[in-house]
Amino acid sequence: MPRRLGRPSLVGVIMWSLAIAVIVGVVAGSIATIASGGISGTTWTRLIVAGLSQGAIYALIALGYTLVYGVLLMINFAHGEVFMFGAFAGLFVAQALLGVDAPFMEQPLIGLIFVFAAAMLTSMLVAIVLERVAYRPLRRAPRLVPLITAIGASLFLQYTAFGLFGPRTRRYPSVEFLEGRTDILGLAFANVQLVTIGAALLLMAILYYVVEHTRTGRSMRAVSEDKDVAALMGIDVDRTIVTTFAIGGLLAGAAGVLYAFLFLNVDFGMGILPGIKAFTAAVLGGIGNLAGAAIGGVVIGVMERVAPSLVLFGFGVPSPGQLSDVVAFSVLVLVLIFRPAGFFGRKENV
């Protein structure tokens, strides 16, 4: 017998009405913007390039979220602060090695290696301590308990940085070779954008190799599938989980330096928005999926730069670029409503 279709629920009707309204608004605004011709092709190019570089940073942070979720099935909401501590560590080393009359002012590449090393190691140590102190004792607790703990750890780290570094915004020292521009395939990239995208691609390639082709990666995948069975097979579960946090911390530290060189400023609250946007990227790609997190980061970065001008300029909204944060939060809400598993994620039976 043919299955009888049930009546649509009120919530379903409201949700789909919202989706249709969003689609109509985006299409109408985009058509109006393009028809007006008020934004030049050069401006679009710059927005896309800026979105790619910013998205590369979100991708690195999102990989930390998705690594931890894949192994522990928890969201480490303190990951944005791990990223922030790396940026501060890089700042102090950069001031010592790359500032005026500093040892590596004439050899900035060597200085940058030390900056990245200091930031990545600092973030790695913060992530390891976070796992050992805040999360390991709660490993068998209900999911809500580690989630609340992660939020508390985020606030603790944020205000620890406030006490250590103060409330003022600090400026990264400028590096001469990062300040120029380079044309590639007709796209004008600032050198710092090229370095950001290149470094992110390199780190993502290394992460893929580690996860797919090393013993550590096999251990991580096994623990992700079933911790108890992995332990019976001789895998040190605690060490594997610590290694997962350490790798996420290394990526967050590198992202902190890249973000700081891209925007030149750091402060104790700088991890909040990038952390939420990276979490959005991880959810968009499918939390727990490495490729999805990387793609989601790039998509969020490009949308954040392009969408406000593309959609709102046609409606006559002044300074639409200032509403870029709205894009990330809107994407998060829509994804959680209509596709909570993300585009590459697996649905879970709860």
Q: What does this protein look like?
A:
- The protein has 350 residues and is mainly alpha-helical.
- The chain has a single domain, classed as ABC transporter involved in vitamin B12 uptake, BtuC (Orthogonal Bundle).
- The chain contains 12 helices and 4 strands.
- It has a two-stranded antiparallel sheet.
- Helix 2 packs antiparallel against helix 11.
- The longest helix has 32 residues.
- It is globular, with a radius of gyration of 22 Å.
- The two termini are 31 Å apart.
Compose a concise summary of this entry.
This protein is about 70% helix and about 5% strand. By secondary structure, the protein is mainly alpha-helical.
Pick out its properties.
single chain; 350 residues; mainly alpha; ABC transporter involved in vitamin B12 uptake, BtuC; two-stranded antiparallel sheet; 4 strands; 3% strand; globular
Strand line-up across the major sheet: 1-4
Low-confidence stretches: none
Helical segment tally? Answer: 12
Mean residue pLDDT: 85
CATH class: Mainly Alpha
Order of helices and strands: HHHHHEEEHHHHEHHH
Strand content: under 5%
Shape: globular
The share of residues in helices is over 70%
Write the layout of secondary structure elements.
Layout: H1 10-36, H2 41-72, H3 79-98, H4 108-135, H5 144-165, E1 170-171, E2 181-184, E3 187-190, H6 191-213, H7 215-225, H8 227-232, H9 237-263, E4 265-266, H10 272-285, H11 290-312, H12 324-338
Antiparallel strand pairs: 1-4, 2-3
